[in-house]
Write a structure and sequence with these properties.
Layout: H1 3-21, H2 26-51, H3 59-85
Helix pairs in contact: 1-2, 2-3
């Protein structure tokens, strides 16, 4: 495994562990998801550059578009949650009270 692959896979794993273990605030969960998507985008971009193929050149842009949609939906949920509940703490959210 090259050091570049190790760096991006460890960045993804760190984002995943941050998402799994630090679930106190919705904003921290969204930041972990964005870190994971950023590491996937850079790794996919480098992979398509290493292959020297034009078949995979649209894949990083498609992933970036989905990442932007995910970020906007997450921020909309963050604003809606903070308006209705007054906080973004995940412990205050209860699905049975909807």
């Amino acid at each position: 495994m090259t050091p570049t692959h190790f760096a991006f896979s460890s960045a993804f794993i760190l984002g995943l562990t941050g998402l799994a273990f630090h679930r106190t605030h919705l904003l921290s969960a969204l930041l972990c998801l964005e870190g994971m998507m950023l590491s996937l985008f850079i790794a996919l971009s480098l992979w398509s550059l290493q292959l020297n193929s034009t078949n995979f050149s649209a894949a990083p842009m498609l992933l970036l578009a989905f990442s932007a949609c995910e970020a906007s939906a997450g921020l909309a949920l963050l604003v809606a949650t903070s308006r209705t509940h007054g906080t973004d703490r995940l412990q205050s959210l209860n699905l049975l009270q909807c």
